[in-house]
Amino acid sequence: MVEYRGKDIVKAIFKALSDRDGTRLLPDDFQILCKGAPDNIRMRAISDFIAGMTDRYAFEFYGRLYGATNLTIHKPL
After folding, report:
1. Residue 53 parent element (H or E)
2. How many degrees, rounded to 5, is the angle at CA 25 between CA 45 and CA 3?
3. Which of 42, 45, 44, 57 lies closest to 10 in space, CA to CA?
4. What pLDDT does residue 3 have?
């Protein structure tokens, strides 16, 4: 159950970050990598950002994107 749910969370985060203007949710260093880059480079940078997330951070990030928890949307990314 946990693995299945985790896969959904990772997919949702990737979708949000790869959608139009989604890269503005990335930290500055990843935004720089993505700005003006071809799609394959942009998708790789997004994948690398997600791969570096801890489980706790991914769950928190997802919750702030989709309101799955009571965490504030005003907390810095």
Report:
1. none
2. 70
3. 57
4. 81
- Prediction pTM value: 0.82
CA–CA separation, 68 and 6 (whole Å): 13
Would you give per-residue pLDDT tens digits along the chain (77 residues)? 878 888 999 999 999 999 989 999 999 999 999 999 999 999 999 999 999 999 999 998 998 888 755 555 556 65
10 phi, psi to nearest 5 deg? -65, -45
Token code pair at residue 46: 């997004």
User: Quick one: DSSP state of residue 68?
Assistant: -
Identity of residue 40: N
